[in-house]
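Possible race condition, two jobs.
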Amino acid sequence: MESLSEASREALYLLITGDPDLWTIIGISFSVSLRAILAAAPFALLFAFVLAYFSFPGRRLLVSLFNTALSIPAVVVGLTLYMLLSRAGPLGDLRLLFTQEAMIIGQMVLCFPILVAMGHSALQATDRRAWETALTLGAPTWRAMLTVIHETRFGLTAALLAGFGRIVAEVGSSMMLGGNILNHTRNIPTAIALETSRGSFAQGIALGLVLLLLALALNLGLARVQGRGEVIP
């Protein structure tokens, strides 16, 4: 217990004093995950809109596949992309393995099904008359889509928060694709795994506290968004 209390005190000290190694890891983690969610969101939400508002053969199958993809382990995504990006793989010439770009690709793959599935559910729950009215009034398709997205902004924001929460804490894909390189690809989850394996708990506890605070912030934000989206009779 004494060693745990000492490690906890040291962890707080590292956070408060702005330890450069610690905050570099935090900065890399947030930078990679934010870029991944911003890159994936437009395509995912567009795909969700198509699934919700257009009928075509195989639509229900696609919805089922995306719902199933929600449970794909991060390490499976990492292994698949590792084989593709390795030197012997078909994309090896791109030399992306063990870079932040590879980590971003992995996190995009992980958050894409979440954004599509949750975005689809939110869009389906919206009154279709907003879409039909906009088209009837002569609005172009893209303008009608923006109208529907505005009506569904609370549900779509919830999807974005859930997707970001999923990827910022994943370790399997980032470890395999980034290589856990100090000051380059070492993010919060991979650093926690490394420090714990070394028996050095102070930095791991500090980074764990950052993830806990982030989880709290995301949940408070999600509750606020859901509260704003409720219809009060």
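Job #2 (started ~2 s after job #1):
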Amino acid sequence: MDEPIGRREANKRATRAALQTAARALFDERGFDATSVREIAERAGVGERTFYRYFETKEALIEDDVDRWLQALGEAIRVQPAVLGPFGAVHAALVQLAGEIAAGAREPPVWSIGEGADPYAILQRAGPRPLWRVEKAIADALFARGESGAEPVSYLRAEIIARVAVAIMRGVVIRRRELELAGDAPVPSLAELAAEAIGELRAVVGTGR
């Protein structure tokens, strides 16, 4: 059972959440680069100095969101049914998270929102080697699944699968952005594009071409 938190801690969490919500809304409206720390603080109803008590920079908001998403991704992979192979578990986890975003049950990654957003360029502002961090989260989760009855995999195989998965994720996000900018309608969801990309990969691997 979770222990009740004090009023001071509750207020701190509420302020942090308000800053994150304000930043998300402004990034969506104006884009990451066009949004200032002062504007985020004003939208959250606090002073600019208060912002810096929670985040050292605007980029730190992205890093905080990255950490949250890496935890969510790792957990989604670990809880997939043991009957799924490692690649199937990653695929199912990505589809699950994309479905939750589409249904409004989960906020999209803050680095992916805003018209014309370049997720990878924004991710790089959150710290070095952002895709490596995603790969490591996936590899760690795949390796951990072997302890809960799923097919055990070597860490090397887990790393290879993770790198392939990240390549697919990046390709899907880029493709969806291209379709949005081209004005093509309807634009497939991330889950639909991911399924298509994985199908293409399986076809290539299956034929050896």
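Residues 155-182 form the longest helix (28 residues).
Logs attached separately.
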